[in-house]
């Protein structure tokens, strides 16, 4: 679910980052109040836990595997605001040190995976669990909460992908980033998450919490998250504001009008399909848009660098075999 | 001799699927190896702060670029940097970037059938540039240099502290998890019906272990009088390698802007 670089337009990334900032700020404030300064290391260690949890490959039907996310799990174990910071830090490290998920799209990833996922998951869990007297209700709450949480995050991701063709188009009308409209992006993201990944996540979460409850029941977060109207208002406002902000950013981009939606939402208009010729990118070592000499030199430098890379790769393999 | 000892044992092992354990082991090994090598492979003479800044600048420029030619300029620049990497870092970076690019290509391929050739060529090229640029950065420096650079950019202490602690514990807890998963693998014979249960057990132990470690860290911090506030980093020295690196980056970004502005 990590959105890589260049699938979202920079405008979308900026809007999502702006949306993620208040979430993080409120999380820091709440965590500081809830988790005393002395317990700060738990957040870092919790982030390491969250990072490692994503390394767990769960067996899926058909002999394949998929990795766990564990957002709802961490919200139930450490509390939802701590989960925002822990999962967010894990995402930042994946982007910065491992190149998993983009740096520009980090705001979007934090919003979807570190905020929407644990919060939706945690509150669905709380709602179903009720006063906590019934064990069955608690287990069902964990399962449904983690399933809904994961799918909510997947839906946000799908919407962010799906609006790209609407808001970021080149002068010729072709989408600049993710080329699929909502009608393609939503089913493509949601069907596998609802049927497979979500079920695996729910099962894994239930089993882990059951295990911890059995072994060391005192270690599960029981703090009272204040259900102040402020929090709900923030969540609702953000959820409402994000798509609006994205569309607004699109208008500012200057290539999108309300009357176009119906026309664009289908796909690239047929009349534009011939607007860009593949063969025109590098004919005779010249590059479209560059003076011939510059294009030639650039191609030569690129070619030389490629050759060096290939040779050094081969040399590396040979050396390894000899050793 | 008891009777059961005289019986012939007929036990056939069902072919079990434990790829999920193998994959988990490989993923953990990969992470630990990356963190451990981070410092050893330090190849760049440039200060990490410049690298972090210009890597981000290049990624932004590439993301904003609309012309294939400007993406191609960025691609060439990144490839030149690749060519200067030591063998192990080179192999890791190219592997990662090529997989990311192929993935992007497969994702946008259906769009080509709908007549959108722009996405099929430009998007994978952009993905390659970004993936390679970030990987060069993280392989050229240890993670401590990168968090140090973030501290220079006035990222609040709490985040630097969180990143720092997290990386340290990914390493410590990662080795712990690796041992647990390997123990699980050794104990798995044939087909197990409790595949989720066994992995969940490992994750559960991991959580309890991280709680203990967090408490110990907090005690250690108290003993040393460290409250999570970092001293201001020393002043940045601008050396010739930094100047060269910055000039090259500025030139590439200038060319990209020039192409984007002039080509219409």
SSE layout:
The complex is a heterodimer of chains A (323) and B (264).
Chain A: H1 10-34, H2 40-53, E1 57-59, E2 65-67, H3 71-78, H4 80-97, H5 106-129, H6 135-162, H7 164-167, H8 182-215, H9 229-253, H10 261-266, H11 292-322
Antiparallel strand pairs in A: 1-2
Chain B: H1 3-6, H2 19-40, H3 48-64, H4 68-83, H5 87-113, H6 117-140, H7 143-152, H8 157-187, H9 195-224, H10 240-262
Summed up, what is this model?
Chain A has helices at 10-34, 40-53, 71-78, 80-97, 106-129, 135-162, 164-167, 182-215, 229-253, 261-266, 292-322, and strands at 57-59, 65-67. Chain A is mostly helical.
What features would you highlight for this structure?
heterodimer; A: 323 residues; mainly alpha; Arp2/3 complex 21 kDa subunit ARPC3; 2 domains; two-stranded antiparallel ribbon; 11 helices; 2 strands; 2% strand; globular; B: 264 residues; 10 helices; 77% helix; flat
């Amino acid at each position: 679910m990590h959105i890589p670089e260049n699938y979202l337009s920079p405008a979308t990334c900026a809007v999502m980052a702006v949306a993620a900032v208040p979430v993080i700020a409120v999380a820091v404030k709440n965590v500081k109040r809830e988790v005393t300064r002395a317990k700060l290391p738990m957040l870092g260690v919790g982030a390491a836990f969250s990072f490692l949890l994503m390394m767990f490959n769960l067996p899926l039907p058909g002999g394949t595997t998929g990795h766990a996310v564990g957002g709802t799990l961490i919200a139930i174990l450490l509390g939802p605001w701590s989960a925002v910071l822990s999962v967010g830090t894990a995402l930042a490290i994946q982007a910065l040190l491992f190149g998993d998920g983009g740096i520009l799209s980090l705001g979007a990833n934090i919003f979807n995976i570190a905020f929407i996922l644990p919060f939706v998951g945690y509150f669905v869990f709380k709602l179903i669990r009720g006063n906590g007297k019934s064990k069955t209700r608690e287990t069902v709450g964990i399962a449904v909460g983690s399933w809904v949480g994961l799918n909510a995050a997947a839906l946000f991701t799908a919407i962010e992908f799906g609006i790209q063709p609407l808001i970021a188009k080149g002068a010729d009308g072709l989408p600049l980033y993710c080329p699929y409209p909502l009608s393609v992006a939503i089913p493509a993201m949601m069907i596998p998450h609802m049927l497979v990944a979500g079920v695996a996540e729910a099962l894994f979460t239930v089993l882990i919490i059951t295990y911890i409850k059995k072994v060391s029941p005192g270690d599960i977060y029981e703090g009272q998250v204040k259900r102040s109207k402020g929090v709900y208002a923030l969540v609702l406002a953000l959820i409402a504001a994000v798509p609006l902000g994205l569309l607004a950013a699109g208008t500012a981009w200057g290539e999108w009008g309300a009357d176009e939606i119906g026309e664009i939402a289908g796909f690239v208009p047929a009349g534009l399909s011939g607007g860009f010729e593949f063969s025109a990118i590098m004919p005779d070592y010249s590059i479209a848009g560059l003076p011939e000499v510059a294009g030639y030199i650039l191609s030569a430098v690129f070619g030389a660098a490629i050759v060096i890379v290939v040779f050094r790769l081969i040399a590396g393999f040979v050396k390894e075999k000899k050793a | 001799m008891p009777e059961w000892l005289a019986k012939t044992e007929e036990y056939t092992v069902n072919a079990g699927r434990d790829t999920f354990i193998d994959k988990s082991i490989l993923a953990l090994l990969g992470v630990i190896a990356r963190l451990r090598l981070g410092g050893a492979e330090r190849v760049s003479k440039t200060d990490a702060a410049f690298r972090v800044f210009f890597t981000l600048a290049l990624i932004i420029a590439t993301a904003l670029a609309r012309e294939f030619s400007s993406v191609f300029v960025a691609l060439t620049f990144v490839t030149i940097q690749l060519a200067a990497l030591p063998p192990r870092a080179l192999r890791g970076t190219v592997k990662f970037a090529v997989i990311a690019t192929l993935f992007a290509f497969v994702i946008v391929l259906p769009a080509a059938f709908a007549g959108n050739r722009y996405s099929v060529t430009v998007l994978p090229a952009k993905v390659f540039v970004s993936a390679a640029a970030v990987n060069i950065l993280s392989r050229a420096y240890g993670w401590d240099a990168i968090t140090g650079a973030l501290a220079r950019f006035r990222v609040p202490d709490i985040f630097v502290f969180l990143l720092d602690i997290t990386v340290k514990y990914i390493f410590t807890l990662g080795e712990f998890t690796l041992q647990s998963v390997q123990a699980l693998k050794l104990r798995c014979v044939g087909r197990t019906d409790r595949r989720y249960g066994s992995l969940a057990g490992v994750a559960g132990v991991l959580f309890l272990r991280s709680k203990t470690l967090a408490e110990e860290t907090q005690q250690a911090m108290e003993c040393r009088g460290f409250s999570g506030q970092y001293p201001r980093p020393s002043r940045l020295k601008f050396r010739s390698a930094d100047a060269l690196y910055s000039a090259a980056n500025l030139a590439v970004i200038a060319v990209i802007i020039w192409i984007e502005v002039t080509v219409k």
